[in-house]
Amino acid sequence: MFIIEAIPLQHLPKNVSQVLTYYYKEPIEKGSIIEVSVQTKKLLALVTSSTPLENLKGDLKANAFTLKKINKIVSASIVDKSF
What is the number of structural domains in the chain? Predict the structure, then answer.
């Protein structure tokens, strides 16, 4: 299991975090486009990091929210790694 951080490609309200956290069964390459659910909407997002669950277990237990699963991977790494 991997924890995926992503930035939505659509504007979110200012009071909502602009970096979203989800989980997925395998690592997703940085720069990939994924589809995620935010409340009742489905949005596209750009993956910024993919971290194994074992590295973040303590941090996740302290959170008051639960993570959602990524809906699907739309395209693999469209952004160059050096960017």
Answer: 1
Distance between CA 70 and CA 83 in Å, rounded? Answer: 24
Q: Hey, is 55 helix, strand or coil? A: helix
Instruction: For residues 12 and 30, give the distance between their C-alpha atoms in angstroms, rounded to a whole number.
Output: 21
pTM, two decimal places: 0.76
Ramachandran bin of 39, using left for φ above 0, alpha for ψ from -120 to 50, beta for the remaining angles: left
What's the alpha-carbon Rg for the chain, to the nearest Å? 13
User: pLDDT for 6-54, tens place per residue?
Assistant: 999 888 888 877 888 888 999 898 889 999 988 888 999 999 988 887 7
Domain range enclosing 6: 2-75
Cross-strand pairs, 24: 2
